[in-house]
Amino acid sequence: MDIRFSTPPVGQSHFYISQLSFIDAVDLSPIETDDTELINKAVEAAIRQAVKLMPTLKYNESNHSIPNTLGNIQKLIRLIFNPDTPKKERIVKIISEMMIPFGVDIIILGTSVDKGNTVVIKPIIILKNSKKVVTKTLNYTKKDFICTDSNGKKALCYRAYNEFAKIAIELLNAI
Predict the structure, then answer these.
(1) Secondary structure in 3-state letters for 44-110
(2) 72 C-beta neighbours (distance < 10 Å), count
(3) How far is C-alpha 93 from the chain's CA centre?
(4) Per-residue pLDDT reduced to its tens digit, 101-134
(5) How far is it, in rounded angstroms, from Cα 170 to Cα 100?
(6) Which of 104, 126, 127, 139 has its CB surrounded by the most CB atoms within 10 Å?
(7) 107/16 Cα distance (integer angstroms)
């Protein structure tokens, strides 16, 4: 982890992270599929790994978490993707309407697009203090994205799962 997460904001002892479910990048709606659940679990595992590496990070702490509800996801979608609002104003609105009321410093979410044989995943990290949004685009063929585990259940393929863990930490460091 980067040194920037060693000193929390003034008056705080931690940076508080909240994760919201990935959304469909085409119709800007929450995705409720098995594949998305696998993505969300991989991102959560990556966040938990980052928390282990950097003790000043806290994940979904009481009074410092945005509930992962349909209403909150839709509100964040409207704030992020509003074409009538300049980008800088969008960040200010996200901070004032979602981060400050919930006591959150970092929001992690993302978009997903199924393009037939390809899946495009784009994790998004929003940081309150620096008013930044950091993203990364990951492209997978279907066969390299969803596999079957040893119990015969759908799972993220090994490479995709490991990339998610690496990307979460990389994006946090990029902020």
Answers:
(1) HHHHHHHHHHCCCEEECECCECCCCCHHHHHHHHHHHCCCCCCHHHHHHHHHHHHHHHHCCCEEEEE
(2) 17
(3) 18
(4) 999 999 999 888 888 899 899 888 999 988 888 8
(5) 25
(6) 126
(7) 9
